[in-house]
Amino acid sequence: MSHLKTDNPIALQALLSETLFLPKEKEEAMVSSVGNIKDDASGKEAEEFIYQGDKSTGVLFILRYPDFPYFSPQAQDAFVKTLGALNLSFENVAVVNLANSHNPNDFKRIMQFFQPTKITLLGVEPISLKLPEIAHNSYMKGRVATVFNTFSFEEMFADMQKKRLFWNEFKVFIGT
Fold first, then answer.
1. pLDDT per residue as tens digits for the range 16-71
2. Phi and psi of 85, rounded to 5°?
């Protein structure tokens, strides 16, 4: 059996069930002056965030699922159907999971990296990103982006009223 060598957090998360810690010296050596992680295999710098989709469209979904790289299987199915109903797909939105230890939980860095115009918080409390309080299924317009705060898909699965409220407001938010 060959020895696998990787520092990719997604690969490690898939392969291991234990929590891993890097010695502080190695962690500091991996982080460059601009905050990107060096990819030892290619010598190139990896992106500051691990995300899925296309960040150039300006549509960003922020979630915090500690047990999955992005969504639970049921939530991913609901997410894909929701996007499809609005003529969107994983290919034309960006999804970032803040539970991934590689991803900074810093709204300013999120804004700088993704440069979004529409942000949907799926079960992520605005206060955790140092944003003002935003009621569920409502949005706040900023100078650059509009932030829509809603429930996680698991919360919507458990309460049809939450799902209905989300859908009615989300259609308006994406359409604007």
1. 544 444 444 443 333 322 334 444 444 444 568 999 999 999 999 999 999 999 99
2. -65, -20
pLDDT in tens, 122-175: 999 999 999 999 999 999 999 999 999 999 999 999 999 999 999 999 999 988
Closest CA to 97 of 57, 136, 49: 49
- Does 51-175 carry CATH code 2.40.160.40? no
CA gap 100, 70 in Å, rounded: 9
Q: Per-domain residue ranges for the chain?
A: 1-46, 51-175
The token duo for 106 is 């810093």
Instruction: Report d(CA 150, CA 35) in Å as an integer.
Output: 30
